[in-house]
Structures are given as structure tokens and as C-alpha cells.
Amino acid sequence: MKRVVGVLLVVLFLQVFAVVAVQAGEVRLSAAATLAEAMREISALYEQKEPEVKVLPNFGASGALARQIEQGAPVDLFVSANRRWMEHLAAQGRMEEASQGILASNKLVLVGRRDLENSSLEDLVRLERIAIVNPRSGPAGEYAEQALRALGLYERLAPKLVMAQDVRQAVVYADRGEVAAALVYKTDALLARQAKILYEVSPELHDEIAYPLALTVSGAGNPAAVAFLAFLQGPEARQVLEKYGFLVAP
Question: Does the keyword Signal apply (predicted)?
């Protein structure tokens, strides 16, 4: 009899624990690294409003994050730095298409030494080393390559290009003077301590820099993730994104 009671108590404990876990709620967020500061602040704001919810962020290159989702990583919400990776996952049936939207947009800039006076991408031929994100690992590199190819500069500059793993690394290279300049997102360039923004690249030279977001198929079944997605598209999150230099449509 004691054994039966013990088993019943264990079962009851597990049921109560499961209910508490559901009530507590977790949102497993995978977002492009360039969004890290803004998303941390937005997550903190949301957790203040909804203390029973915990946002668990994972930041990195969009391609790497997409491959993690592709391989079955537990993710509720994905925010990419370009449309291609979102479309790639959607084509595999991994994203809840009805939840897809655009969080924000950005600009591509040249950031570099304060003594430089570059006024166009053509001036890059005079520099010794220029950092860009590896186009195979991050969208920022794709945008940079598109802009350079549009002006017929990519092949000429190829020997001078230093490939960074992500935007933050490219900014660090420029900040430390390891390269003369770097082609990065404006939001990341604003975080530089020593380097300065030298030039904004014309958006006509590359694809639109947009940050699509969507719930994964599993995330669509998580009420906490659905609610957090709505918060990301609201006025409080918009204010934070604009503070960090992102462009948000009205």
C-alpha cells in the first residue's frame, strides 16, 4: 500500500511540475547576431511585463541558425538577416507561413579609420585591407559582394578582402585597425569605439536589407512564442529597434 501511495505521489508531483512548466513558458529565439543588443533589451522588457515567461536567445549568422533549425534544433521563433534563409526553411515546411513578417531593415556602410576620407566604394582600391563578412556564412557579406560586383570592383579587391565570420568580427577588425575599413551594417558600425562610419552604400547596389521573422511549426503551438511575436511587432519593441539604429516601417 505504501508503495502504491508513493507511486501516486510521484505521478502527482510530475503532473504539478508539468503544469508549472507550461504556465512559466519559454520562448526559444534564434536571431541574427546584428540584432543581439536590441533583442536582449526587448526580451528584458517583455519578461518584466510577463514574469512567468523566459526568452532564451541564440544569436549567430543567419545561415548557421537556419542550418540548426534544419537539423532539428528546438527553436520557436527565427529572425533572419535576409529573406533567403527564411524562404529556404519555409520551402522545407519548417516555418509557420501565416506568422511571417518583417521586423526591421538596415543599411550597409563603410566603417574605418578616422583619418580616412572615403566618399565612395571606388576609393576602396586605395586601401590595403578591407573586411567583409564571408558571403557563405552571413547575409552582410552577400550584400557587400553584391555592391562591389555592381560597381565592377569585387575581382579587383578580392586579394585585399579579409573574410570575417560575422558582422561583429568585421567591426572589431576595423576598430582595432587590423583592416583599414569594413563593409558592415550601420547598426553594428554605430557600436564601434575607434572606427567611424565613412560612407553609406547606396541601397540600389544590393538587395533590400530586411529582417524577416516567423514562428517555426513547433513554435506556432507555443502560446508564449505566439505572444512574444506579437510583442516584437508592437510599439515598445519598435522604440528599442529604432534606438539601435534599425529602420522600422510605420
Answer: yes
